[in-house]
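Weekly modeling sync, notes
Attendees: S.R. (lead), two postdocs, one rotation student

Agenda item 3: backlog of single-chain predictions. S.R. asked that every request posted to the team notebook include the full sequence so nobody has to chase files. The rotation student volunteered to paste the first one in as an example of the format we agreed on. Action items at the bottom.

Example entry:
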Amino acid sequence: MTPDTLLLRQIHPGFVQNGRVTSQAFRHTPKDEFQLSVDNGARVTAEAAWRRFTADPACTSAGVQAISRSDCAAQVLPVIEDGSSHPEHCSIDFSAFEKKAIDKKAKLLRAAAATRGWLFTEAAA
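Predicted structure, as returned to the notebook:
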């Protein structure tokens, strides 16, 4: 993985307000144990990642946005290529930070993703 590798993030429809993705989309949930799930964009396209994700009836996504590995490095967030649920799966590790720092980092990641815009949307499916 290079610094320019895009990390694809599924955006839950509830995290889109007035057409804008909220920083909640770039924060882990309590069940995630400080790990934010993403896909390695060098190994899968945004469309293929979206189709795989939404094939599970329990999973909903408005589309895919991305941050780069260098965006994570700028926030001192390790990216782990873990292949845990599928080969291209990665985790962004927030475990070294307290809630206030996590919230700030999520806002900065959201801003980086917003600059790139949507890589794939449900409407394009």
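Discussion: group reviewed the output briefly. The chain has a mean pLDDT of 95.
Action items: rotation student to repeat for the remaining queue; S.R. to check formatting next week.
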